[in-house]
Every structure is written in C-alpha cells, then in structure tokens.
Amino acid sequence: MSSMAGFTFVLVDEPSLRDLKNLEQAMLKFLHYIGYLPEENPKSAGYRLLTECFLAHPTRAFTVDELLDLLGLGKNRSTLYYYLNKLKGYELLDEVQVELEEPLGEGERKKTRKAYRLKFGDFRMAFNITLKKAESVLDVYRDNVDHLAKLLKDSL
After folding, report:
1. How confident is the model at residue 118 (pLDDT cuts 50, 70, 90)?
2. Contact yes or no for 32/15 (Cβ under 8 A)
3. Count of alpha carbons within 13 angstroms of residue 154, beta-carbon side
4. pTM to 2 decimal places
5. CA 22 – CA 27 distance, rounded (Å)
6. If you ran DSSP here, which 8-state letter would residue 120 be given?
7. Cα separations (Å) of 58 from 29, 109, 118?
8. Quick one: which of 90, 97, 148 has its CA closest to 119?
9. Domain ranges in the chain?
10. What is the CATH number of domain 43-101+109-155?
11. pLDDT tens digits, one per residue of 93-109
12. Which residues face 114 on adjacent strands?
C-alpha cells in the first residue's frame, strides 16, 4: 500500500480479469483488488455509487442529496462520504458547482451546490490518472531502495 497526499492504492498480485466476461464480476474483483471495496458485494453502497451513478451517467454531476436518494441511504452521509472520498483519492471525480432549480425571489441569485462527476466523463481516462500516480509512487520506492542499498554498502 502506498500513501501520498491522500492517495492510497493497494497493489495486489492477483490474476488478470481478462477471463471474466461478466462486467459486474470483473468490476467487483477489480474494486476489491485496489482497496475501494472491502468485499465483493454488488449491493454495497460503494459499488452502487460508482456503477449506478458515475459509470451509468458519466457526464452527469450529482449532489450529495441526489446520491443519498438514488442509493437509498437516507441520511447516512458518512457512508456516502466514505466512498466519495475514496473515489476522490483515486482522482476519479471532479467537484463542480451546480445551480439548484429553486424559484428565486426578487434580487436573489441562483443558488449553487457542490456536486461530483466522473472525471473526463470516461472511466478509462479518469483511472489513467490513478495509474500514472501509482507509477510515480513506485518510482519513489525504487529511488528509496537504491538509496538504502547505497547507505548499506557505505556502512559496511
């Protein structure tokens, strides 16, 4: 596991998903492999948040209230924010401001609220940022190993 400014990505030596032809099975395994999901449960809030909201509607921005309603979480914001923060940590989401559709009084400005959407409107492009970041972290690990090896050699 590596950690860098809120970035946590689990590297697990697991078999390729290429043999899996079912999207749900492959996605569940993948999300479990990277540490996003604690278990492979298609009914979990985290899985549904990603697949039913952001992947099913990749260009749509969702407010927290919309996500709570869509996922049937009631007022359970902590669960929603847990998974939103994980997705933000992977840099898969953009935070945007959306205008609320409320009637305005005289002289009032449109109200806005924070919303989230899939970065670039494309899972592959969004996840490419995560992969580049993971490569960068691994490069730092390589440099650290080289440095430690040099220190070990110099101390002998």
Report:
1. very high
2. no
3. 6
4. 0.83
5. 9
6. G
7. 21, 28, 5
8. 90
9. 43-101+109-155
10. 1.10.10.10
11. 999 999 887 776 777 77
12. 97
